[in-house]
Amino acid sequence: MPPDRSDLLQGTLELLVLKALSLEPMHGWGIGHRIGQLSGDVFQVNQGSLYPALMRMLRRGWIRAEWRVSENRRRARYYSLTPEGRRRLARETESWERVSAAVNGVLRSRIAGGTS
Amino acid sequence: MSLISDLTERLRALVFRSRVEQELDEEVRAHLEFEVAELRRAGVEPAEARRRALVAFGGLDRWKEEVRDARGLQPVEDLVLDLRHAVRSLRRNPGFAAAVILVLGIGIGAATAAFSAVRTILLSQLPYPHADRLVRIYEKNSPVNLWSLSTVDVQAIRELQRSFDAFGAVQRTEAALSGTGTPERILVGRATAGFFAALSVVPLAGRLLEPGDEAADVPPVVVVSHALAERALGGAGQAVGRSITLDGVSHTVVGILPAAATDLAGVTAEAWPALQLKTPTRRGPFWLRGIGRLREGITLDAATRDLAGVSERIFPLWAAGFRDQKARLTPIPLRVTIVGDTGRGLALFAGAVGLVLLIAIANVATLMLVRASARAPELAVRAALGASRERLTRLLLTESLVLTLLAGVAGLAMGWLSLRLIGRLAPGLPRLAEVGLDTRATAFAVLAAVVSGVLVSLSPISALLAHGGPGHPGTGGARAGTSRQGNRLRAMLVMTEFALALPLLLGTGLLLNSFLRLRRVNPGFDPAGVSTLAIALPEARYPDEPALQRFWRLAELRAGELPGAAAAGLTSAMPPDDPGDINNFDLLDRPVPEGESEPVSPWSAVTPGYFLALGIPLLDGRLFQAGDSGTAPPVVVVSRAWADHYYPDERAIGKQMFAGGCRTCPPSTVIGVVEDVKYLGLAGSAEAIYEPVSQANTRWLNLVVRSAASENELSQGLRNAVAALDPELPLSVVSMPERLRASLASPGRWTALLAGFAAAALALASLGIYGLMSYVVRQRRREIGVRIALGAEPASVTRMVIARGMRHALVGTFLGLGLALLGARWLRALLYQVGPWDPLTLLGVGALLLVTAFVSCWLPGRQAARLRLTEALGSD
After folding, report:
1. B residues 38-97 closer than 8 Å to A (CB)
2. How many Cα neighbours within 13 Å face the side chain of B139?
3. Which of B9, B296, B701, B822 could make an S-S bridge to B570, C-beta 3.0–4.6 Å?
4. How far is A101 from chain B (nearest CA, A)?
5. Which residues on adjacent β-strands are paired with residue B274?
6. What's the average pLDDT block by block, 10 residues per block, for chain B (876 residues)?
7. SS3 for B326?
8. CB B646 within 8 A of CB B601
């Protein structure tokens, strides 16, 4: 197992799921797999948090679910973004960028302070 | 958007619970298969791939639990679980469940029925538009003395009042309906146009009465009930325009009332002919009901003042014959006048029902408590497995609620039945047709069920909490319900049951006592072999006094000639509760002071044959003779009670009085005194004045015959004899014993009703104490077994159990006595010759309750005495 695998904060997981689904509708396993791929295997999505998160997002109306047949001809539940989910993704991305930029700024200044 | 999707997702999860669970399962399976496929692509062996996939997934159930949590359904699912559990545990104990549902169902059912009846009859508005503005107008000269209106009153109100936007009068009477098959006697309300206007009645077909219909010279018209139109006029659709004959006069049907209008303003009638008011010659007689609708914004007080003014204006005009200056025209809300005395009976009924419901709740609470202790081990196991106290409380509460709601459903069914039963048992209740199980009654039943559910679960829950939790399974936990506190609670519940049962028993005892006394009342005559036939001679065929007198003479003669007939007579009053007419009089030798009201007495027109037929002995003076004709000076015969009241120390014979307030008429002279007969009910006074039919000029009389022939023969003979004289008269013969029974029927029904409730209360209380003592014996069987093994007398064991139970019963009974003494005065008006605190009745019901308690304790006591140590030890 990758040593530096991070535990995902709940909000972050939702953001990643929204992002993954913005590319194409996917089933649960696919979402986990895709997030793993996209993050270069830094994020190993725990099924124990993925499905509850999907359930929450369904309830909030960000995503919808339907049963479809997968590429290997298995019936699976496919999730896709709703317009509400798209707006959410845009907002969350923006705020994430702001926060991460801020965090990065803080981290850098600290390092700078430490070397001076 | 998000709220809606939230709700739909939750709802979907809830409604399609099993489908959603299946989807979850399938989603998990799909996930695992994708994982396995991925691993195999990477070259892992199938079995190993499967193992790794499962490991990666982690605990399947925990995972599902979290998904479910995320669905936001935990509280609901807990409830569903609790419900399932409750239903399962009830199924395991069908006897217990049935007992609770039955006991509480009876209580809730009776309470629901009482609620509906009380709400509809006593509290709700009458079914007329502007019902709150409807009043009935009386003549009133003291808070308790009210009477109807006269022609003078009605005409004066019409002309002078300023408070009503509609006012009318109605005369409640009967008429012979002929020309539509067998002649029959129907109830009739002769009404003015204003009567319908005040009530805002809308006809089903045709029109209602109009002011023009009241004139003497227009063809008579009538409005008929829906029922009469269906029965006699070929249906409501084609009745308008046809005619019916009432008392020999043909009336044209101008309108049909809606089917629901079986009575209007408390007057039940099938035909409503126009009332024609003739020009009055004196202030009385008072024979009309005045109904008015107050103008918008006019208060009852304002109307009272207005009508008082009317009274003052008309008094001097008729003062010669009517000297009661204190009499005032007084409006009283129509609802009050219709519901009237029923309030007390209904309140009694509702009170009895409430007590039974409370006893039922106490009883079920005891059952629950006993059961809770029996399942203490189960609760302890649950607690050990991690159920919180809160969770257990909720479990107990859910169980109780499931039970009591089931009882509520049973109660609704029983309530429906009881309403039918009340209809049977207590006819004569006004507005009963309006009573039904509506949404409010249903809501009441549900509320009663929920409240009792909470109440009955309080005892096991408090036992659970008092013990500091259910303890450990198998050790102390097995005694969770046996704590001292639990026992005290149970004992208190049993005491409550006894305390509540006693007032019911006392009420029943008092009513029964007074009913038995009423039955022993001497009606003043021997009813056996006497039959009666009411006759009303229509004006159309008997226009004048000679025609009337001729018919009455012949009818009495023919009836006396019937085979087996011993005597026949005529009377306008009928014992025991039809005074015919009540008239005022003023004694010449002790006149009533100016401005005060004159005394009144039942006043009936009779022939001498009436006294013979009923066997009423003459005590002084003489009976009427042929010489007491219409032209001779008026004479009267009085009853012994009348003579004792007005002339306690002298002979009444020869005394004179003005009758009916007529001072210009010749005074009536008392010529005889006869033995008492009751006309104002068996509990009423026996004062009476009789005048001869030959001087009365009446068209309403009862033919009374005493005969040795059988009741059927006599009845047939009477009908034939009268039909031979006039085939158009409606004929219905009633035997005198039947009349007496009917007059006892109403008090008998109330007594029976209350006795039913008291019996239920007694049964519940004795069940309660039996259950408690059986439980105590079971709980202490080890100790009892040891005592017996050590040589204690079995009898002393029984005594110990009984003593303990009787202590509760005694305390309860004494508490109940206190309650009963406080409440009994409400019964006073329903009692006859029995005080509300009748000591014998008190002693009797107290003893009954305690004896029942004794037997209920003796049974478990005897069981205890038979305990053997081995069983006692082995059974734990």
Report:
1. 38, 56-58, 62-63, 66-67, 69-72
2. 25
3. B701
4. 30
5. B191
6. 63 65 79 84 84 72 64 66 79 80 84 78 73 89 79 91 93 84 86 92 90 88 92 85 88 91 86 89 84 92 92 84 79 81 70 85 82 73 70 82 88 82 61 68 85 81 62 41 64 87 86 82 82 86 89 92 91 85 86 80 92 92 88 93 93 90 84 91 86 88 91 89 88 85 75 80 85 81 82 86 90 88 75 81 89 90 79 57
7. coil
8. no
Give the CA angle between residues A43, A45, A48 to the nearest 5°: 150
Residue A53 near chain B (CB below 8 Å): yes
The size of chain B, in residues, is: 876
Element (H, E) at B305: helix B300-314
Strands B149-150 and B286-294: antiparallel
Nearest to B580 by CA among B661, B678, B679, B674: B679
Chain B residue numbers touching A46 (CB-CB < 8 A): 58
B595: number of Cβ within 10 Å? 11
Strand partners, B574: B578
Report the Cα B724 to chain-centroid distance in Å.
Answer: 44
Give the residue from B334, B376, B370 showing the smallest Cα distance to B479.
B376
Q: Tokens standing for B128?
A: 């007329």
CB pairs < 8 Å spanning A and B: 74
Provide ipTM, 2 decimals: 0.80
Q: Which residues of chain B lie closer than 8 angstroms to A33, CB-CB?
A: 34, 38
**Residue in B4, B66, B72 closest to A48 by CB:** B66
Six token digits for residue B791: 């040589």
| Full DSSP string of B770-801 | HHHHHHHHHHTHHHHHHHHHTT--HHHHHHHH
Task: Compare all CA atoms of chain B with the CA of A75 and give the residue at the minimum distance.
Answer: B30
Residues of A in contact with B9 (CB under 8 A): 55, 58-59
Contacts of B31 in chain A (CB under 8 A): 27-29, 47
| CB contact (8 A) between residue A84 and residue B2 | yes
Decide if B58 and A51 are in contact by the 8 Å CB cutoff. no
Amino acid (1-letter code) at residue B195: F
State how far the Cα of A48 lies from the Cα of B760, in Å rounded to an integer.
Answer: 60
* Cα–Cα distance for residue pair B282/B288, rounded to 1 Å: 15
Rounded to whole angstroms, the Cα distance separating B548 from B701 reads: 11
3-state secondary structure of B120: helix
> In chain B, what is the greatest distance between 2 CA atoms, to the nearest angstrom?
137
Q: How do strand B221-224 and strand B164-178 relate by DSSP bridges?
A: unpaired
Residue B518 to residue B747: CA distance in whole angstroms: 9
Q: Cβ contact (<8 Å) for A51 and B10? A: no
Q: Which chain B residue has its CA at the smallest distance from A71's CA?
A: B34
Other CB atoms within 10 A of residue B111 CB: 26
Degrees (nearest 5) of the Cα angle B806, B808, B814? 95
Read off the tokens for B327.
């009499």
- Which pTM value belongs to this model? 0.62
Q: A83: cis peptide before it, omega within 30°?
A: no
Closest CA to B171 of B157, B155, B151: B151
For residue A80, the SS3 value is strand
The Cα B392–Cα B400 span in angstroms is: 12
Element (H or E) spanning A26, and its range?
Answer: strand A26-27
